[in-house]
Amino acid sequence: MTMKPFALVLCCAVALGGCVRPKTDGVELSVAREFRAMPVAEQARAFRQYPVDQQLGLYFFTHQHMHHPPIILAHCFALNGAAGVELLRAKLSEEINAVTVRDIAKLLRTMDSMKTYDVAGDTQLMEALRAQIAKFPPEGWAGLAADYANKIGHERSGIGLATQRECT
After folding, report:
1. Which of 18, 36, 40, 74 is the most buried (most CB within 10 A)?
2. Which residues in the chain belong to E strands, given as ranges?
């Protein structure tokens, strides 16, 4: 490619798309990496300062790209109640992989357990979750997702003061 056509393509790309920042699940990759580098206690405190959609993106990023992901983030996300569920419902309507299905099932189980949303009582949501789980072989991540789904409605503890304190 000669210099003129390359310059023209570059100018068009900048004009049409501007500076594109890489994202992961709706969160800028640099933000997600910065978040991942924080100590877990600091992650828990900072997590709820992000908009709910970015919280979900950060949750997926930490649970899919970290060995020993911070479990507390499921509790912090669960505090969003119905607003968080709507994002999860939308995600379940997309083509997603088994790891994401596992993470959604974990979040829904946590929300139901903490009583921040009646997941068990939302039959459409449970049907969407089970439909996604059924797309994958049960011996992989979908098996764990099925375990989480089967516990929804059976293990309820309510919101603990420790969780509220850790997530603010």
Report:
1. 74
2. 23-24, 27-28
Residue 127 forms part of a structural domain: yes
107 touches 72 (CB < 8 A): no
pTM attached to this predicted model: 0.82
Domain around 96? 23-166
Nearest to 145 by CA among 97, 113, 93: 97
Residue 13 lies in a domain: no
Measured distance CA(154)–CA(163) in Å, rounded: 20
Q: How many separate domains does the chain show? A: 1
Place of tokens 């596992």: 102
Contacts 24+ apart (CB under 8 A), 87-96: 87/52, 87/53, 87/56, 88/56, 88/125, 89/124, 89/125, 89/128, 91/56, 92/125, 92/128, 92/129, 92/131, 92/132, 93/128, 96/132
99 is a domain residue: yes
Closest CA to 129 of 156, 147, 155: 147
Q: Model confidence over 4-26: pLDDT tens digits?
A: 544 444 444 444 444 445 766 77
In a domain, 136, yes or no: yes
